Amino acid sequence: MQSAELFAGCGGLALGMSRAGFRHQHMAEFDRDAVATVLHNKTKGVEHVRDWPMGLQDVREIDWKKLTSLDLVSGGPPCQPFGIGGKKQGQDDHRDMWPEAIRAVREAMPRSFLFENVRNLAGPRFRPYLEWIISHLERPGLIRRPGESHAAHRARLVASKGRKEFQVVWQLVNAADFGAAQIRHRVLIFGIRSDLDVLPSHMTPTHSRDRLLWEQYVTGEYWTRHGLKKGRAPILQQDRARVERLKQAGVAPSGAPWVTVRDALKGLGEPNGKHNHVLQVGARVYPGHTGSPLDLPAKALKAGDHGVPGGENMMVRDDGSVRYFTTREAARLVGLPDEYEFPRSWTESMRQLGNAVPAPLGAAAGGWLAAKLGGGNAIGGLAPARRAA
Predict the structure, then answer these.
(1) Which residues have a catalytic role annotated?
(2) Contacts for 256 with CB less than 8 Å, ≥ 6 apart
(3) Residues 160 and 248 occupy one common structural domain
(4) Can you give the residue range of the structural domain that contains 290?
(5) Do 43 and 171 belong to one domain?
(6) What is the value of pTM for the model shown?
(7) CB 336 within 8 A of CB 289
(8) Is the residue at 350 inside a domain?
(9) pLDDT greater than 50 at residue 389
(10) S-S: 363 plus which of 19, 217, 251, 285, CB 3.0-4.6 Å?
């Protein structure tokens, strides 16, 4: 299946999509350091990455009409305009690239698309803009007029009597529910071209906290798996009632357990100074920054303010002490293979990893779309995309 990705960053989403069977025909990223990271791993011959046509490019310069027969366009437009921190200028921020994502869909007319962003985009402040994004993605050919407000444009889009060009659905997801070792809440927007007569639906989680609690505090197999004494960690107060319900039910919850920090880092050992596994000193606990316990998925990695990662980019060790995650550990939490290296400083690498979409979430979303398109998880087997009439 042929795809293109914009706002590719250091490659988390792209790797997930590659694992789901998509072959990238074009990749664009504006950040030089992120591009350098991908090209470094392309030169190393890392699986999937070695085939990526990655380039330093402003998406505003891409002529998407030249990229025909795409099964997918994917990407994560910059989230800073909509994040919890910062000035929250949304569509008035010069970094808002949602219009460019919509232009890519309009010009390339792929069979499908997938975009992701911070969950704050679905909050009260930016919900009207999200509704405009959805309505415009449904009818990307109905372009906003000069001077027309987003509200007026959306009203015109909704009132349009023509057939929607894309069937679109969005949902809030937690990356941990799809196999990522991070509790990372995101908005996913899926679209499938209407002429394919396929209706998108919400993804179903594959992993759960309940299954993790079952294996930790009912059967104890989680501790056995790690060679630790059963029940070595006390049940968190907020989980006590859930554990009691699980015990009373007596049946293991379906699906897989959440992937914990301990799971993700198994076998890596303490920092040894090699392969990005280098100790960074200075970690400390302060209000709002308490680190990630080993026996839960990590708190969301953060890109940090002014280039300095926040205190959440650290683990709480078994003895209660804290230290920063090494670049290698953070890469594992994003779902990148150990051979995937970051050639820049720890601060810059953590910035890229804090902005990255966890690869397991990308793989789950890509596999979901591939199945909807009839391609399963296998590469190929699909007819070339047809442009909408």
Answers:
(1) 79
(2) 179, 206, 207, 208, 211
(3) no
(4) 208-354
(5) yes
(6) 0.91
(7) no
(8) yes
(9) no
(10) 19
